Amino acid sequence: MIPFTLTSPETGNALRSDTPHSLRDAETGARWPVIDGIPYLRIGRDGLIAEVLAHLDDAGAENGREKALVALLADQDDWWNGPPADPADLAALVHGREEASLRDAVRLLGWGRVGDYFLHRWSDPTFLAGLALLEAHWNGPACVFEFACGIGHYLRELRRHGAKVAGADVVFAKLWVARHWVVGRARSSSASTRPRPTGPSAARRSISSSATTPSISSTTRRVCSNACARTRAMTAGWP
Fold this sequence. Notes:
The longest helix is centred in the last third of the chain and has 18 residues, at 218-235. This protein has nine helices and nine strands. By secondary structure, the protein is α/β, with parallel strands linked by helices. Strands 2-3-4-5-8-7-6 form a seven-stranded mixed sheet, with helices on one face. It has a two-stranded antiparallel sheet with strand order 1-9. Residues 193-224 and 226-239 have low confidence and may be disordered.
């Protein structure tokens, strides 16, 4: 696990474990929920945070954790203009997670066109071009932190090649999907601001050639080359 310290996105103060399901601001006492090892640190969601903590704190409540998780899974990007997720679908996903596929999760979360993009991103030219850049500049980093990681496509590839990985995104549900279907037990944070890495290894984001280069097929290389050529054409003449 990458050794970084989480800080409050509101105050910058260190956050300490308060209960198994929450973190507390070391100075102000403000609390933030944690579910499935994912801290929810999004600002501007005071009502949602209070609701989730109330469910988690009420030990006598029936299905309190499930209700808290459904509430967080319904949270979306501020730009989202699609219909809200159906609470019944979210509850079905929470209860049936062990049997659900990634496609099931995307459908029940109600992600629509965004979900279609995530399902097919492995064949998207921009993603393949990113893999080609990683191959060209790989130096076997000890650990990698990705901001706005989505459901963790790149984190999955980096982890496969030996790096310890962590990611952050403003949408909790994306990190939850990353943890359970795409990446596995990477460290994640649903946050409005970036966690602060500590230690020299956490700062090693630069990559250059080494023997542990990811393997990319000749077909992928051609797709990446064509995508990069189109990008150069589209950006020609930009300042």
